[in-house]
What does this fold into?
Amino acid sequence: MASLDNKDQVSSKEPFVEGFKIDAKMLKGSQEVIDALSPLQFLDLVETKSGIVAINIERRDIQKNPYLFSIIYLNPDSIEIIYSYNPDESPKKRRLEILRYFLNILTLLENVYFINHKQLYQIVDNFMSRLLEYTSSTYEELFSKYDSVREECERIKKQLSETIAANENLRKSNIELKEKQNELLLRIKELESVSDEILISRIQTWLDEHNYEINISDFARINKVSEQRVEEILNKMVREGYLAQRE
It folds into this structure.
C-alpha cells in the first residue's frame, strides 16, 4: 500500500490549469538562456524548435503523475507560463505564489530577454486587485463569506446526493419495467404461438355454438390471442373456402 507524507498528499480531484503570457524579445541564443536559468536545479530545461521549455514539478499524485506544476515557454517573441492548482486550495494564494515565482525567473532573464514591462505591470496589477477583497475585509466579513460559501457547498452536495439516489431509484425502476416488458413480450409470443390449424378449429367450434356469428373481441379474450390474429385467421378461412361471407 502506498503512503504519502503531508507535504506530498494531493486531492483526488483533477487540478485546474491556467496561465498568462507577456511579450518579450529573446536577445541571446538558446544556450545562453539555458545558462541563465541553470542555477535553478529544480527546473527541467528542454530545448525545442520554437524555444526553451522550463518545467517545474512541485507535487505528483499517487500514480507519480504531475499534479502541481508550472511550465514556462521561453519563445523568441514571448514568455508564457502555464500552471496548475489544487481545487481544494485557495486559487488566489496559488496565483500569488506563481506570480512571485515568475518574477524571480524574469530577474534571471534580464540579460537574455527584453521584456515588455508595461504588460508585466498590468498582470501584477490584475493579480493584486484580486487580493484587495481580502486585505480590505475584516475577519468577521471574511468568515461570513466563508461560512456562506461553505453552507452553499453543503447544500449543493446534499442536492447532488439526492439526485444520485433518485437516479439510482429510476435506474432500478427502469430495470423492473424492462423485465416486465420482456415478460409481457414473452407472453404475447407464447399466445401467438398457437398454430393456425388450432385457431381455425376453435373458430369453427365457436361458429357452430354461436349461430355462425363471431365477436372478435370476445373470441380473442377467451382464447388469449390478439384481435389482429383472429382477423388474419378469419381472412385466411375465407380465402381457403372454410367460410363464406354473407351477402
User: Anything to note?
Assistant: The first strand starts at residue 16 and ends at 26. Residues 1-9 have pLDDT under 50 and may be disordered.
